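Minutes, project check-in

Agenda point 3 was the complex the collaborators sent over. CS summarized: two entities, 566 residues total, and the question is how they sit relative to each other. Sequences were read into the notes so everyone works from the same version.
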Amino acid sequence: MPSVMLKKNAEGKLVFYVPKKDLEEVAESVEFDSPDKWGGEVLLSDGSTYYFEPQAQPDFPVTLRAKRLDSGE
Amino acid sequence: MAALTREETEALIQEVLEVYPEQARKDRAKHLAVNDQSLEKSNKCITSNRKSQPGVMTIRGCAYAGSKGVVWGPIKDMIHISHGPVGCGQYSRAGRRNYYVGTTGVNTFGTMNFTSDFQEKDIVFGGDKKLAKIMNEIEELFPLNKGISIQSECPIGLIGDDIEAVAKKANKEIGKPVVPVRCEGFRGVSQSLGHHIANDAIRDWVLENRDGDESFPTTPYDVAVIGDYNIGGDAWASRTLLEEMGLRVVAQWSGDGTIAEMEKTPKVKLNLIHCYRSMNYIARHMEEKYKIPWIEYNFFGPTKIAESLRKIASHFDETIMAGAEKVIAKYQSEYDAVIAKYKPRLQGKRVMLYVGGLRPRHVIGAYEDLGMEVVGTGYEFGHNDDYDRTIKEMGNATLIYDDVTGYEFEEFVKKVQPDLIGSGIKEKYIFQKMGIPFRQMHSWDYSGPYHGYDGFAIFARDMDMTLNNPCWKQVKVPWKTDDTSKVAVAASA
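CS then shared the predicted structure for the full assembly.
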């Protein structure tokens, strides 16, 4: 359950940062991405996937707990 | 000597690795790579931020060095107690040349060493009482200090002293910020964790001191310079450029900085990060908590300065954008003259770098402006995200080495034969004795500033006077000198 810092970059894409792992990746897709429901499975550009509890869209940047589903290797 | 091809570089790495026992070879192989610009991510080719192998000569420092030496030390109006035995503070005192304005010992304390000088009895019975006493003494002797930070050395963590409790009590008594920093040297693999711990201490003990206090008048053009340690006056050379383009620099972190500036930083509109490695943590925190965006910039060499000024300006309105163009135009004749003078003398020279956490990639642009080529680079304590940013800056098939050992670095230099090496004081005399020009790139070899347009002129002069110094032709003994170098000596004499 890593803590993930999420923010939007200049292109409006979601940037995923895990401080402990120096992992800085752009999210390719987010399962639920609407103002009232956000979260689910998030696929990163390196192929790994993380899971966030679906919730109302947070105010980025924000730190959330994520579950790691697949390392992409 | 011509540039190495990819195969030659790979063969060189294999050759250097051969002397290691199998286990060490396997580990070290992960830290040496041939640059491939087509890669997006560095973790495909290099591993970083791992524990050094026992038995090799690593060039890294410790967490205390990262916190006291880098992040906290330059804050000039605070007193930083090196809590523990006397050596850590004394041998690192004033070595980093973080310049500041003020009267040392009266209202600024940058070059002084404060220590609790642990003795056996402090280890046996604990040092908390001593620490409390020291802080009262400091208040009496140096009443103009604006706060105290307690920089833990290894024994503090080992004996389990409760410096937080002492700090809280002292804070009530003296009414100034007292910050305990848990930066014991044994934490982490290098000074990098010390930066992180120091950033966290700022976050927890300093940053929110003025939350809810709106008495500080702000403007739409407020910025903070973060991660510039004013080595040889770097931050001043950067600050003038930012102010000339119309921005207001509210805080300098932490070269020539004060605690009041740090407390005001949450009021700025944009954080400018120079040393990403040591201060990105606090910038990310401020982005999340105070919604202050941050950007990285690079003030080494005119190409990168112009790029950075435009990037910074793009976060503001037209007046600042026009200001940036004005600044670039204003200095153009100056830096064109520098390039015209030094480029012919330095053109085509090859440089190998091995520095800390930012310069291995930031200074590449400055060398390229002078027509030089960086053929090898590496970080003492960089992480993956640093290497991600380095791959694009470096040429294809150049060497990249992480936490290079003394042996590897020497062997690489013998084979690659660069014209100049930029690294630290521990490497300086080895390479000078090998007859290779060397610049100490941690504290600019007692020169500087190197940031900004003013700094570029000094940078170019320093590189020229090192590289083209006639002394390098005298290093070889006469009976080993061939005819060509004799002619060169005669010509330059």
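Noted in discussion: Chain B has a mean pLDDT of 94.
Follow-up: revisit at the next meeting once the mutant set is ready.
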